[in-house]
Structure to design on (329 residues):
């Protein structure tokens, strides 16, 4: 427990977390502080490219083995299964409609790439290495949860006669910009290797944490304004779900990571992927597939509650638990 508290306090004092807190408090205080939409989009493009490229370079340098394929398989399995667990938990804790429960559940089977990036930064700061192919696992976990959510909706709305698996939805799922950029950058890094990294290292490495701070400032603003707008829609059960579900997901992620033989760093990243909740890819797909689902509910829980929980307390908790089980100091 002391190690968890120490890690949490250290994490809370980092520029990354404090930048998010600044945005959150500015929004809750109704400040007119804002980040231009074009700038926020540019920062997200940079972060996705940088993390994907570095992951590809790592695979090119150290090679991939059977763990790459088993890790991707484990990630896909979790992405399919976690929404089913989330739906059952929401049924027990809330009185949300089946459609809203399924939409929320989809977010908790997919992943938050920014939480993943923050986790890699924490590991790097503590000198803990991880498998570069975890970027590929993150990309593979974006879409399956959406399919699980659509199955849940279809099961609970039999007889509606409405088909949701149309070409627009498949395009949204498979060609979502974040997935394309992450996988594309990973492939570029894998092809060019360390030589490619040497050419653009000053762009990929040095500015990374600074850009991440500004991006999280914007995320804090978005999360805070979402919380203000969602007052009255979210009850105590839904809030409890948004804290308990990531912890449960992290346990499942850790179990699979140890089963397939990931390193300490890889296990922590698998925990973070299983614990995080999407606020980019899944909301975009839900707008196409389930327009009647309330964004004020699913975005508030994923971005307004789970995201800050993971940044402040979740990542230190997952790291401390993994270190204990792996026997690392």
């Amino acid at each position: 427990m002391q190690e968890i508290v120490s890690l949490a306090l250290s994490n809370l004092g980092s520029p990354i977390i404090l930048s998010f807190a600044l945005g959150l408090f500015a929004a809750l205080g109704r400040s007119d502080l804002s980040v231009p939409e074009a700038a926020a989009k540019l920062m997200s493009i940079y972060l996705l490219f940088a993390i994907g490229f570095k992951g590809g370079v790592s695979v090119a340098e150290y090679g991939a083995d059977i763990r790459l394929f088993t890790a991707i398989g484990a990630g896909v399995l979790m992405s399919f299964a976690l929404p089913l667990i989330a739906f059952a938990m929401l049924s027990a804790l809330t009185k949300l409609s089946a459609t809203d429960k399924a939409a929320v559940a989809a977010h908790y089977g997919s992943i938050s790439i920014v939480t993943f990036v923050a986790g890699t930064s924490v590991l790097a700061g503590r000198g803990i290495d991880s498998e570069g192919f975890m970027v590929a696992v993150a990309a593979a976990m974006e879409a399956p949860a959406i399919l699980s959510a659509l199955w849940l909706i279809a099961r609970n709305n039999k007889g509606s006669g409405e088909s949701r698996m149309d070409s627009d939805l498949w395009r949204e799922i498979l060609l979502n910009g974040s997935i394309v950029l992450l996988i594309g950058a990973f492939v570029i890094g894998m092809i060019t290797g360390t030589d490619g990294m040497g050419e653009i290292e000053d762009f990929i490495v040095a500015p990374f944490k600074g850009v991440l701070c500004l991006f999280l400032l914007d995320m804090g603003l978005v999360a805070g304004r979402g919380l203000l707008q969602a007052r009255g829609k979210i009850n105590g059960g839904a809030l409890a779900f948004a804290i308990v579900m990531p912890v449960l997901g992290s346990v499942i992620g850790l179990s699979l990571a140890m089963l397939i033989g990931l390193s300490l760093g890889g296990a922590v990243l698998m925990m973070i992927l299983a614990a995080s909740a999407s606020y980019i890819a899944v909301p975009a797909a839900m707008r196409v597939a389930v327009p009647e689902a309330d964004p004020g509910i699913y975005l508030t829980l994923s971005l307004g509650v789970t995201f800050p929980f993971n940044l402040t307390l979740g990542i230190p908790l997952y790291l401390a638990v993994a270190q204990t089980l792996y026997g690392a100091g």
About this structure: Residues 60 and 190 are 5 Å apart (CA to CA).
